[in-house]
Amino acid sequence: MEALAAASSVFAVASLVLQLGCNIQRLTDFWESVRDTPDEVIQIKSHLRVLGTLLRHIEIDTRQYTGQDCAEIAQDCLCLCAASIVKLESLTKELDKGLNGNGVRRRWTSLRKAMREKQLSNYWIELERAKSTLVMYQGWING
Hints:
Layout: H1 2-33, H2 39-64, H3 68-98, H4 108-114, H5 117-141
Helix pairs in contact: 1-2, 1-3, 2-3, 2-5, 3-4, 3-5
């Protein structure tokens, strides 16, 4: 019975990683659609890619370390990360509305008008919160 519970936990982690990975890809796609961006936006894209990599490593770790504790802690960390990703998606949707659907022709100058400085600061806070949760998990699993 314990093996079944562990397998179920690993499956739940894999499912959550897949979902979050898709969400992160949408966020990355949004930022890559903005042209003429400053270094800060380039850094956001890089941090989103790092977040995606950390997610994949958590999935690998839960398969490698088959204990139920590992999967449960991974799932808890992913749920915390998911909350930050939901906030990032919400902020991104607000920014997208502010661009009035300019699609591929999005430019940083248009985005800057739609975005308040506080919004960018909040974006960074949520991105860092998501990453730090996953890094804490990595530190725990690697001893």
